[in-house]
Amino acid sequence: MDYTKAIGDYLTLEISVLSDLDIEAINKVMNSLESARRRDATIYIMGNGGSASTASHFVNDFNKGLSEYLEQPFRFVCLNDNIATVMAIANDIGYETVFEFQLRGRVADNDLVIGISGSGNSPNVLKAIELAKSVGATTIGLTGHDGGKLASMVDISLHAPVMSMQVTEDIHMIFDHLMMAVFYKELCGKEHMKRNEP
After folding, report:
1. CA-to-CA distance for 179 and 60, rounded, in angstroms?
2. What is the C-alpha separation between 93 and 78, in angstroms, rounded?
3. Sign of the torsion angle spanned by Cα atoms 96, 102, 106, 107
4. Phi and psi of 108, rounded to 5°?
5. Which CATH class is domain 10-186?
6. pTM of the entire structure?
7. Is-contact 150 120, C-beta < 8 A?
8. d(CA 135, CA 137)
9. Where are the domains positioned within the chain?
10. Which residues pair with 87 in a beta bridge?
11. Does an H or E element contain 140, and which?
12. Host H or E run for residue 101
């Protein structure tokens, strides 16, 4: 079986989406993250499925990858990482509250809350963002497709303009690694973007 055309089509779509990304929105998110770090704010992040993996990856890259070289670290908390807590809330109260419940009485106006939803319509992410906004926390949404409800709710939207969940999730990981690489250089004084020569 020759998959080369399908592979090329996928890569062509990915490159097209990358060329359409809002660089100023990425810059705004980076400034919000850096401001949160400087004021010792908690940065909450969450998602379902592949977006849950992306949320966990953000925490790894910022809490370890960057903070290893920073005197004042980032303070990321991933709301989908404690399986026992998520399952208990889902079973006893309802899956749509698994993130909102963890924020109740904890999130403050000083904090930053990031919701990741490919469709932009994940009910549990939307409820958590609503709660964050109600206490005055800064909100950020990572979305795909048409952005859904999340893109219009948040203070800053990072949108992958594509009707493909796979490419959307690729772009969301690029957001993470792009920001990490730039911070790695600008905040930590480390070069992280050299291409290997043949």
Report:
1. 13
2. 20
3. negative
4. -130, 170
5. alpha beta
6. 0.96
7. yes
8. 6
9. 10-186
10. none
11. strand 138-143
12. helix 100-103
Contacts for 9 with CB less than 8 Å, ≥ 6 apart:
none
Would you say 115 and 128 are in contact if contact means Cβ atoms under 8 Å apart? yes
Nearest alpha-carbon partner for 128 in 140, 143, 119, 144 = 140
Measured CA to CA in angstroms, residue 196 lies from 155, 180, 190, 193 at distances of 38, 19, 17, 10
H or E element: which one contains 46? strand 43-46
Please say whether the beta carbons of 150 and 171 come within 8 A.
no
The two three-digit tokens of residue 112, written as one number: 């930053």
The one-digit pLDDT tens for each residue of the chain (198 residues) are 999 999 999 999 999 999 999 999 999 999 999 999 999 999 999 999 999 999 999 999 999 999 999 999 999 999 999 999 999 999 999 999 999 999 999 999 999 999 999 999 999 999 999 999 999 999 999 999 999 999 999 999 999 999 999 999 999 999 999 999 999 999 999 876 666 666
